[in-house]
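Reviewers of the previous submission asked for a worked example of the structure-prediction workflow described in the proposal, so we include one complete record here. The input consisted solely of the amino acid sequence. No template or homolog information was supplied to the procedure at any stage.
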Amino acid sequence: MEDGHKSIALNPDLAINSSEQNMTPSAEETRPKSDKKEKSTAYELFQILIYALLFAYIVRTFFIQGFKIPTGSMEDTLLIGDFLLVNKFIYGARTPETIPLTDMEIPQFRLPAVREPKPGDVIVFKFPPDPTVDYIKRCVGVAGQTVEIKDKAVFVDGQPFSEIIQPEGLKFEDPEIIQRNKGYEAVFPKDAGSRDNYGPVVVPDGYVFVLGDNRDRSYDSRQWGFVPRENIIGKALFIFWSNASNNNLDVRWDRIGKIID
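From that input alone, the workflow returned the following structure tokens.
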């Protein structure tokens, strides 16, 4: 053309073919609506499951965890077969030791505590001689306090400490205790005394002293020493289930919902 612009000749057949190609429905569009709906629903359910598992993992790691009572060392406060929830947040929960679902270790740190353990708290902690085992006892003394037992009566800083005592049972000199302590260097004052007459001892910095409420049948700080602060997992809250035997139908209904104090 004289005006300098190039002219483009349109081929009618090409135009028609192009138009028809654009109008051809995709595989997704031709798929039955029921199939697309099922796929969408399955994906949504999968997402919900992942979020629920992640939420449960976060809650269990940093806030609340369930535990079962296997022994009678805390009777009558806690009975064998009680299931309880423990507040991990109050003392500052620890981050995981490994990457979830793997054995790869990662740096661990503790979150800030709402408050420190105090005498009277029922606490769950990693057993000092074997940190893979969790124990539950009552905190009796904290750093700087003096603990003494005179004829079964407990005194903290010279003042009587209220506790539950159930008679008979495990003896301080039991061979089982000696064997279980083998190879464990306890933070424990030598010649502290016996089960019923003990101390006085001062709780060192960074540790707590614990006793079982059923003190005549409890394996506690009198035998293996103080609990490091870093071993403490959390504070017992309440009982959410309780079986009187291995039969899950043998339920202690009167214990469900009991606040632990």
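The two ends are 99 Å apart (CA to CA). We consider this example representative of the routine output the project will generate in years two and three.
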